[in-house]
Amino acid sequence: MPSLSPRPAHTTADTNRRGPLATPAEVAEYLGVPVKTLYQWKYRGIGPNVHKVGRHLRYRWAEVDAWLNAQATYDLAV
């Protein structure tokens, strides 16, 4: 029987770079919209990129921020 080696430990640098996955409730609070709106955006394909982890929806914070930055339609610094 092959010996089982332990999983490699994640370093804090990996965790800081990757960040935790966010729940729909966390993203909704961050964006200031109802959770139902996130589900509608997912259905329409217009919201931030969402991932299924098992049967749960999760968001990557970097993708939420990138989507939010792409929503800017005009420059306020003019």
From TrEMBL:
Origin superkingdom: Bacteria
What stretch or stretches form a coiled coil here?
none
- Region (Disordered) location: 1-21
An example of a GO molecular function for this protein is:
DNA binding
InterPro entries, alphabetically? DNA-bd_dom_put_sf, HTH_17, SinI_DNA-bd, WH-like_DNA-bd_sf
Q: What stretches pass through the bilayer?
A: none
Locate the Helix-turn-helix domain: which residues?
23-71
Name under which the protein is recorded: DNA binding domain-containing protein, excisionase family
Organism, by scientific name, is Streptomyces prasinopilosus
